[in-house]
Amino acid sequence: MKRTPRRPNYHEGRRQFLIGAAASSALPLVASDAAARTAPPPSTAETRDASETNLAVNGRMYRVEIDPRTTLLDALRDHLGLTGAKKGCDHGQCGACTVLVDGRRELSCLTLTVAVAGREVTTIEGLAGPDGTLHPMQQAFIDHDAFQCGYCTPGQILSAVGCVREGRAGTEDEIREAMSGNLCRCAAYPNIVRAVLEARDLVEG
Ligand code: FES
Ligand code: FES
């Protein structure tokens, strides 16, 4: 009897998709100082969609071979090894992945890497001074005990810097409104607001 070919069900299809995605996320990164990271060029079918993208992150240039559908959050964490930006919801709802792009806050989980090519990206790893001196907002978060588990903190700090630069830190209510996209499951909000108030005059425009 002739058999009808079985169609893959949803879960099988998704599994195959994830296997493909995992393979492409392992693409080699070629940084501008090529000696730092070298790997053979992609050759498998899974990597056929990779393309070269130049990224400026924390004052350093990177050239990455990346699937154009890769989000900035995944590029930072999985390709550049910058794990400060956190993946909370991966849907634009929690703010844990907030970074600065050309000085303005962006949700890196909703931003395609190719969209920021040639623009200046700042993550929490790039906020302190070259000598390690903490940014005033980082110091204020420490001084005011503005974090508990710390998972949301990198996004909170970068969002706070962005909200001050936007001129939206005049009052407590204004700060709460401007920071409402950054969720903290530990409810450290009162201390976060106090930290932003204290640091706002020290944050450069
Ligand atoms: S991880 Fe991007 S908003 Fe939640
Ligand atoms: S300090 Fe824990 S989620 Fe914000």
Automatic annotation (TrEMBL):
Keywords: 2Fe-2S, Iron, Iron-sulfur, Metal-binding, Oxidoreductase. Gene3D superfamilies: 3.10.20.30, [2Fe-2S]-binding domain (1.10.150.120). InterPro entries: 2Fe-2S-bd, 2Fe-2S-bd_dom_sf, 2Fe-2S_ferredoxin-like_sf, 2Fe-2S_ferredoxin-type, 2Fe2S_fd_BS, Aldehyde_Oxdr_Iron-Sulfur, Beta-grasp_dom_sf, TAT_signal. This is Oxidoreductase. Signal peptide: none annotated. Residues 51-127 form the 2Fe-2S ferredoxin-type domain. PROSITE patterns: 2FE2S_FER_1, 2FE2S_FER_2, TAT. GO terms for molecular function: 2 iron, 2 sulfur cluster binding; metal ion binding; oxidoreductase activity, acting on the aldehyde or oxo group of donors. It comes from the Bacteria. The lineage of its organism: Bacteria, Pseudomonadati, Pseudomonadota, Alphaproteobacteria, Hyphomicrobiales. The keyword Oxidoreductase applies.
